[in-house]
Amino acid sequence: MDINMIDLMDLEDLDMLETTRRPDRHRYRVNPFELSDEDFRYKYRFSKRFGEKIVGIVREDLVHDPRGCPLSPEIQVVCALRNWARHEIQDDTANLHSVSQPVVSRTCKKVAEILSRNSREFIKMPTTLNEQQETIRKFRSIANFPTVIGAIDCTHIRVKKVNADGGQLYINRKGFSSINVQVVCDADLKIMDIVTRWRGSVHDSRIFRECRLKQRFEAGAFSGILLGDSGYPCTPYLFTPLLNPTTPQEERYNRSHIRTRNTVERCFGLWKQRFRCLLRGMFGDIETAKKQLLHVLYYTIWPST
Question: Name one GO cellular component term (predicted).
Fold first, then answer.
């Protein structure tokens, strides 16, 4: 048989083949803000009002790709919130919102970067005299400790083991890799200052010694003082507890100091319960983890949400 005839027969057979395309299961997505308040809080651990506030902050910075079936800013924000708050497998978040796991990973990183760029608008110490006096008044109402403008402490956030050079410097005194995060909060548990760049092996006192907030206190920018634990040096603007109180006055000082400074401990507890990824550990790359620590934007908007 002629070779040309064989080629023609093969082409005819190919024409008869049916090509099937996989149905696009990511085409239709439900707007999560159409859920009831109760259902929204059950799925995302936050109120719908809070979610709308975050969408309003990041909407302009979220690039809306017109190709294919793009994710709306609403979907991107709730994907990130659910992943951070519940610390579930990204595949589960992806299936819930009809997207792929790599999309959820990129979305979390993108939303974290936008929040970190906008953080200075919300995370800030009281600057005006009225703001400082109001902060001092609220702290004094706790245990009658005067002129307190903030409570300071550090907490360790577990991260994936760093294998690069210097990775051993991330190992803290408890034996796991972490970032040592310094936080200053007010009496309402609202975070006013945060430092997220130090490795887990660095001591709390060094973080404060080299932070910009210390320079501002030394320059007289604030009319109040900070309260810290015995890991910090006692200075005119940072009061620590007495190690060996001997008089009733010293014992009263320590009791008042402990009750007032306890606000930062409660802040850490609420922060980690809201964002389970901080409680159980962050296992992305180290730079993304530092940006995602600015989830505290949540507490700088509505501490009681």
Answer: cytoplasm
DSSP string computed for 39-98: HHHHHHSS-HHHHHHHHHHHGGGS----SSSPPPHHHHHHHHHHHHHH---HHHHHHHTT
Position of tokens 């060094």?
A: 206
For residue 197, the SS3 value is: strand
Residue 29: alpha-carbon gap to chain centroid:
27
Measured over the CA atoms of residue 57, residue 104, residue 34 and residue 48, the dihedral's sign is negative
Q: CA quadruple 32, 36, 41, 46: dihedral positive or negative?
A: positive
Determine the Cα–Cα distance for residues 39 and 32; give it in Å rounded to an integer: 9
Lowest pLDDT segment from 169-183, 206-220, 277-291: 277-291
Q: How far apart are CA 222 and CA 286, in angstroms?
A: 33
pLDDT beyond 90 at 11: no
Q: Which residues contact 220 (CB under 8 A, 6 or more apart)?
A: none
Which H/E stretch holds residue 246?
none
Q: Where are the alpha helices (DSSP H) in the chain?
A: 3-16, 37-44, 48-58, 73-86, 90-96, 101-118, 129-143, 204-209, 212-218, 248-274, 276-280, 286-292, 297-301
CA–CA gap between residue 298 and residue 305 (Å, rounded): 8
